[in-house]
Amino acid sequence: MQPTLEDRIASVTDVANANAAGVDRDGAFPQPSVDALTRAGLLGITLSTDVGGLGLGPREFLQALRAVAGACASSAMVYLMHVCAATVAQASGASGAVLRGMATDRLSTLAFSEKGSRSHFWAPVSEIQGSNGDAHLAAQKSFVTSAGHANTYVVSTRPTGGDALASSLYLVDADADGVDTSGLWIGLGLRGNASAPMTFGSPVAKVELLGEDGKGLDLMLGVVLPWFQLGQGAVSLGIAEGALKIAVDHVTSAKLEHLGQTLADLPTVRARLGRSQTEVDALAGFLTDLAGRMAQGDATAPVLSAKAFANETAIRVTSEAMQACGGAAMSPALGLERYFRDARAGSVMAPTTDVLYELTGRAMAGMPLLG
Question: What is the β-pairing status of strands 255-256 and 108-111?
Answer without folding.
Answer: unpaired
